[in-house]
């Protein structure tokens, strides 16, 4: 079979693992595209990058860990393997290479399925960024390229994301282009998506407005119809006195008339500032109908332990879904279990197991002899983020937070510490949104980085 025929066959394969892309994501959106089958495969690559950005592209605290995830389904009163993924990191060059291989469980054994290779700048070279990625599928005993994604920047600002499809070995054709513009506080003011047919054609556009503190206030989405941008969705966001998102309201435009569609109300724990309840309403017969609610539970370390979903479509609220989480002694997630309610009890449905293996990266990152202050994760964050650093020698250490005009906002560390790797969680629930600086001082060495609190 020729490469081209194999590539075409790949695009027609059903997805092995279907993931729903979240709307309003900065880098990732459902595709309009030229082929539904091609869309699925490239969307799978985009979904992987989204998860990579959220999970695998991690701070030094977890950089020393290779990750393996095993996905299972509950069938015939037992857990059955379905899918797994393993990640490794090569830090020997000027560009770091992150490889994730995916496997499906068939006929009692694990078989190659997909592979993703992501290139980033080093964690030790300032705020790291994704440079590009390749996706592959396993066909007839070998890896075949599916798609390539390239990121371009101006300074630290992401300007374009180019998606290309593989049609021959090392030969790609344009598929989709994401373009970004920036406004105040260096935040994204617009995202424009174009499809390549015979030339680039506009497809979708999102615009974003922020408060002076950097909180997203409104987003507007448009479709390109009859050579003009046509309103599609508008989202309004309101915040409480603690600068936490309290109400999100979506509007649709049937026949170009703005119509309420969905409203979500968020409630937080007074003590920890973490999300406690999520109430969802839909517009029906000219009024808001309460149809869904989620309850979030945490352990004593403020780690999420359960999310329970209840729905009401006319007969009162009933349990529907529940996700529970288990962690090891270091706070790393080891198990996520999904259940459905059958009317009388919770029934197992899916499970994800996580294993971690020490890598040479961790040995390097935590070794005495080097002073490092790593990028906080997540960033932007709301309301908590983790700051990690390594010390070259035993030192008197201070770690302080400042706002953009140099006022001290918090002192996280002021103590003697041993050489090696350390991390601390910064909870900014009492601070307004905006750009903050975190400064590490150890002996006569000092280093500062910036982070964004975005409600």
Features:
single chain; 455 residues; 20-stranded antiparallel barrel
Description:
Helix content is 9%, strand content 60%. The chain is mainly beta. The protein has a domain at 367-453: Immunoglobulin-like (Sandwich). The strands form 3 sheets. The protein has a 20-stranded antiparallel barrel. The chain has a 4-stranded antiparallel sheet with strand order 24-23-26-27, with no helix packed on it. Strand 16 and strand 17 (304-311) form a beta hairpin. The longest helix has 21 residues, at 36-56. Residues 3-35, 56-62 and 360-369 have low confidence and may be disordered.
Beta-strand share of residues = over 45%
Shape: globular
In the CATH hierarchy, the third-tier topology of one domain is known as Immunoglobulin-like
Oligomer: single chain
Helical content (DSSP H or I, runs of 4+): under 10%
- Distance from first to last alpha carbon: 52 Å
Rg calc: 23 Å
The number of strands is 27
Q: Architecture of one domain, according to CATH?
A: Sandwich
The biggest sheet, with number of strands, parallel, antiparallel or mixed sense and barrel status, is: 20 strands, antiparallel, barrel
Number of helices in the DSSP assignment? 4
Task: Write down the overall mean pLDDT.
Answer: 82
Unreliable residue runs: 3-35, 56-62, 360-369
Task: State the CATH class of one domain.
Answer: Mainly Beta
Q: Structural class of the secondary elements?
A: mainly beta
């Amino acid at each position: 079979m020729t490469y081209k025929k194999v590539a075409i066959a790949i695009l027609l394969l059903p997805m092995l693992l279907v993931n729903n892309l979240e709307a309003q994501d900065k880098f990732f959106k459902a595709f309009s595209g030229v082929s539904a089958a091609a869309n699925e495969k490239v969307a799978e690559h985009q979904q992987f990058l989204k998860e990579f950005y959220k999970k695998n592209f991690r701070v030094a605290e977890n950089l020393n860990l290779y990750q393996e995830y095993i996905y299972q389904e509950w069938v015939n009163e037992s857990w059955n393997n379905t899918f797994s993924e393993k990640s490794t990191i090569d830090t020997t060059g000027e560009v770091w290479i992150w490889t994730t291989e995916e496997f499906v469980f068939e006929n009692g054994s694990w078989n190659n399925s997909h592979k993703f290779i992501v290139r980033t700048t080093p964690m030790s070279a300032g705020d790291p960024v994704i440079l590009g990625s390749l996706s592959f599928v396993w066909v007839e005993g070998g890896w075949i390229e599916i798609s390539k994604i390239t990121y371009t920047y101006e300074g630290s600002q992401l300007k374009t994301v180019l998606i290309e499809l593989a049609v021959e070995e090392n030969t790609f054709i344009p598929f989709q282009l994401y373009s970004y513009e920036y406004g105040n506080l260096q935040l994204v003011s617009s995202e424009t998506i174009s499809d390549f047919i015979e030339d680039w054609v506009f497809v979708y556009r999102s615009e974003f407005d922020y408060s002076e503190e950097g909180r997203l206030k409104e987003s507007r989405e448009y479709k390109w119809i009859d050579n003009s941008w046509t309103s599609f969705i508008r989202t309004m966001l309101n915040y409480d006195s603690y600068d936490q998102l309290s109400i999100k309201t979506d509007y649709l435009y049937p026949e170009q008339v703005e119509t309420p569609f969905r409203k979500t109300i968020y409630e937080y724990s007074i003590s920890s500032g973490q999300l406690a309840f999520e109430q969802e309403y839909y517009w029906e017969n000219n009024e808001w109908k309460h149809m869904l609610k989620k309850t979030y539970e945490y352990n004593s370390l403020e780690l999420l332990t359960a999310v329970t979903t209840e729905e009401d479509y006319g007969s009162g609220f009933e349990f529907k879904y529940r996700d529970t989480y288990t962690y090891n002694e270091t706070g790393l997630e080891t198990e996520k279990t999904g259940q459905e309610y059958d009317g009388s009890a919770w029934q197992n449905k899916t499970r994800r197991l996580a294993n971690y293996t020490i890598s040479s990266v961790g040995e390097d990152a935590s070794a005495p002899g080097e002073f490092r202050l790593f990028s906080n994760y997540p960033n932007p964050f709301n309301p908590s983020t983790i700051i990690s650093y390594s010390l070259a020698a035993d030192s008197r250490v201070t770690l302080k937070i400042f706002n953009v005009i140099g006022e001290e906002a918090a002192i996280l560390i002021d103590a003697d510490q041993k050489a090696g790797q350390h991390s601390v969680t910064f909870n900014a629930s009492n601070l307004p949104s905006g750009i903050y600086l975190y400064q590490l001082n150890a002996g006569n060495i000092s280093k500062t980085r910036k982070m964004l609190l975005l409600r």
